[in-house]
Amino acid sequence: MLTANDPSRKSWIEVSPDSDFPIQNIPFGVFMANDDHISIGTRIGDTAIDLAALHQLGYFEGISLPEDVFLQDTLNDFITLGRPTVRQVRNRIAEIFDIKNTSLQTNKEQQAVILFKVEELQMLMPVFIQDYTDFYSSREHATNVGIMFRGKENALMPNWLHLPVGYHGRSSSIVVSGENIRRPMGQMLPPGADTPVFGASKAMDFELEMGFITNDGKPLGERITTEEAEEYLFGMVIFNDWSARDLQKWEYVPLGPFLGKNFGSSISPWVVSFDALEPFRTTRPKQENPAPLPYLNCAENTAYDIKLEVYLQPEGGEENLISESNHKYLYWTIVQQLAHHTVNGCNINAGDLMASGTISGPEPNNYGSMLELSWKGEKPLKLKDGSERKYLLDGDTIIMRAFCENAEQRLGFGEVRSKILPAKN
Ligand code: CA
Q1: For residue 211, how far is its CA from the centre of ligand 1 (angstroms)?
Q2: Buried b / exposed e along 34-57 (16+ C-beta atoms within 10 A)
């Protein structure tokens, strides 16, 4: 039972109405407090909650949890416990912080070791990501890129409507929000030239994506079906898959993305569980022409209505909203991605990250990359300060935000924010 999701529940911790973190969210993250104390936590409003301290004080009694499961610097051990245990923990946290529950509410001494102000914390990478896969599941994005590089007739490759295209990315360079990203150096082929040059990328871009984090999967050689897939899902984060388009364009044939992608990707620090996202399920796009092969069949309500925003903030300037998209635009759903990923027997581990691919929508203001927003530089974006952007400049900060709302409630992911540093020659 998902008692934590009860939309009528109120917390004794103050939460502003526009907060991404009402008591119905209960995300998981890793934070450092007082310069050296690292713990797994959650948050309600702007109050962070130390789960290790709660556990030590006996608040999780009756739930089968290893003693040190929250005294870790990543969520991996916790994720390994599986979706039913994570559900019990979320339900219990909701009970403890329910306004009707006075046990911790009236105990100031315990509150002093459990509660922190989020602005006093440093958020750390929440997960040790052993493997990272990047899909390419937005039909609008794949079509736009296809038109730019191959023309309208051949926009979608012949395989695209039959399988969720993906590639294996690099996990070592995934960083948490707040860490800045350095413009990469590399090879590129100038327009009209026959031989490449070496230098700093001139086509630095973001990709608006969401990533899902998996539970432990099945042994190597066994597959996870679309019906089983949801039991293997832990939570989601916002994912900015930084891209250097000029490096990418020159190097990608025939094996796909490499140095134009692996110099950095940024994630939001709070992992929102799939249980918390239950009220925001929606209908996935129809897949009729062609219908996918039977192993990719899945229920219709396997998409999520998550509003996505991208802001560009020039150095010292104000935020410019440059894109508004939605997770529900994805053609291939998360359960289809996971079923496809494992259909050949490929195994997955607790803490693997699988990103959606750039999530673009039908309208030009729904495009999830500079490549599309400026149509490969042909239509520069105009910012409030009068400047223009084809791609990103040094000192630009990209902020991505994601949230869900319906008539009863709102919850979200917070943000992922990073600034572009000049290249290092
Ligand atoms: Ca990507």
Answers
A1: 10
A2: eeeebbbbbbbbebbbbbbbbbbe
Domain boundary among 83, 103, 124: 124
| Per-residue pLDDT tens digits for 81-105 | 999 999 999 999 999 999 999 999 9
Q: What total number of domains does the chain contain?
A: 2
Q: Which tens digits make up the pLDDT trace of 304-343? A: 999 999 999 999 999 999 999 999 999 999 999 999 999 9
Are residues 165 and 234 located together in one domain of the fold? Answer: yes
Domain that holds residue 13: 3-124
Q: What residue ranges in 202-318 does DSSP mark as E strands?
A: 204-205, 208-214, 233-240, 243-244, 265-267, 272-273, 281-282, 303-304, 307-313
Domain containing residue 58: CATH number? 2.30.30.230
Whether residue 202 sits in one domain with residue 69: no
Distance of CA 123 from the midpoint of ligand 1 (Å): 24
CA of 375 to the centre of ligand 1 (A): 17
pTM above 0.90, yes or no: yes
CATH number for the domain that contains residue 344? 3.90.850.10
Specify whether 356 is located in the same domain as 250.
yes
Quickly state the pLDDT bin for 1 (edges 50, 70, 90).
confident
How far is ligand 1, taken at its centre, from the CA of residue 59, in Å?
41
Q: Which residues are catalytic?
A: 141
DSSP, residue by residue, 261-286: TTT-EEE-SSBEEHHHHGGGEEPPPP
Ligand 1 centre to CA of 125 (Å) is 19
The burial class, CB within 10 Å (0-12 / 13-18 / 19+), for 324 is: middle
